[in-house]
């Protein structure tokens, strides 16, 4: 057993930590207030190679590994969750399906510029009528004269409306399977396709600078070759995409919780009450010690799940365990960090106020905590519905 990161992983973590501290941290409060993704920071992330981290060099990627991507997401989230989720969604949801399931031509057209950070891709699975029950997809795609004609809508889609968003990969019903189940396929929709529209960005509780929108498709026509993989493969494809994504979201949660821990330790040493630093009170020491335990255990769960993924071994249950534990731990850590800060914790100028708002969505996106528990129970052989 070896719990050490490789020298390359450690070195890259250092690079991203410096970038997060020097470039992102000074802008985090302003980005949150303006609720706008800063494209100059996205450009610098592209130059650092972040968007191509786990992809082969032949497609403009860094040829690095999945754990290195998780480390980068963790380091960014330690400082700012909006920037971290922008990377997570761009790589995990935007580029990953094209890399895994795309043709050579699709990879050359879309993956290469995505790896360089020149364009962003989004992943449209959730619909206004349902996210957890993804099989209930209503969006349809009908093949007509060599084109898919798409109608429907998608909800809560990350990175869908940035100035450099060039494509959205959407799931759509393309027919019925033999057993009567919906046949779901995945289709690439370039954002300049007539009939495609991204609505105004949502006003969210947190992740303010991350771009999230509802999308509509009205007789949106794309070439037949924009199908990703095979007809009817959509269900399997998004489940696989989400397995990787859950580990990456768990890494984001670890980063956010580490940020809460760093801030809490700093503040507990500086702030005085009753003539002593508040960190001298056992009541706060226990909170901070628990925070550290949570961060360390979640980190182990994330790295192990990422390691299994990299070995090509089954990791579905481990991804759910890491996602469930890390995200619930992060919500608790953020709540406790606000408590350590007292009144200042409730004021927007303190970073922990932002961490508190940013944490909650981690228990919702890429499969809610309830869905993770169902998946973990399923892995134990307990009966249940199709997920
Ligand atoms: C900021 C943000 C960004 C997002 N980005 C994307 C994106 O890029 N692409 C994308 O496709 N989606 C995205 N999502 C959508 C997200 O994945 C869904 O919101 C999530 O999967 C939950 O789906 P829902 O909102 O429809 O909730 P619902 O499925 O309606 O669930 C409502 C509640 O019911 C519970 N529930 C549902 N079914 C069960 C069950 N069987 N057992 C027990 N409890 C159950 C849920 O856990 C939840 O508590 C994003 C969401 C947010 C908020």
Produce a short descriptive summary.
With 387 residues, this protein is α+β, with helices and mostly antiparallel strands. The protein is built from 11 helices and 10 strands.
Description of the molecule:
The chain has helices at residues 7-24, 28-34, 39-47, 66-77, 81-101, 104-115, 234-270, 282-311, 316-341, 351-359, 369-379, and strands at residues 120-124, 140-144, 147-158, 165-176, 182-190, 196-198, 212-223, 227-228, 272-273, 276-277. With 387 residues, the protein is α+β, with helices and mostly antiparallel strands. A four-stranded mixed sheet has the order 1-4-5-8. A hairpin with a 5-residue loop joins β4 and β5 (182-190). α4 crosses α7. Residues 89, 93, 122-126, 130-133, 156-158, 204, 207, 212, 361, 364-368, 370-371, 374 line the site of flavin-adenine dinucleotide.
Structural topology:
Elements: H1 7-24, H2 28-34, H3 39-47, H4 66-77, H5 81-101, H6 104-115, E1 120-124, E2 140-144, E3 147-158, E4 165-176, E5 182-190, E6 196-198, E7 212-223, E8 227-228, H7 234-270, E9 272-273, E10 276-277, H8 282-311, H9 316-341, H10 351-359, H11 369-379
Parallel strand pairs: 1-4
Antiparallel strand pairs: 2-3, 3-7, 4-5, 5-8, 6-7, 9-10
Helix pairs in contact: 1-4, 4-5, 4-7, 5-6, 5-7, 7-8, 7-9, 7-10, 8-9, 9-10, 9-11
Can you list the ligands bound to this structure? flavin-adenine dinucleotide
Order of helices and strands: HHHHHHEEEEEEEEHEEHHHH
Helix content: 40-55%
Mean pLDDT: 96
Biggest sheet architecture: 4 strands, mixed
Structural class: alpha+beta
- Counting DSSP E segments of at least 2 residues, the number of strands comes to 10
What is the terminal-to-terminal distance? 34 Å
Contiguous runs where pLDDT drops below 50 for at least 5 residues = none
Query: Which term fits the overall shape?
Result: globular
Radius of gyration, in Å, reads: 21 Å
Major sheet: arrangement of strands: 1-4-5-8
Beta-strand percent range: 15-25%
Number of helices: 11
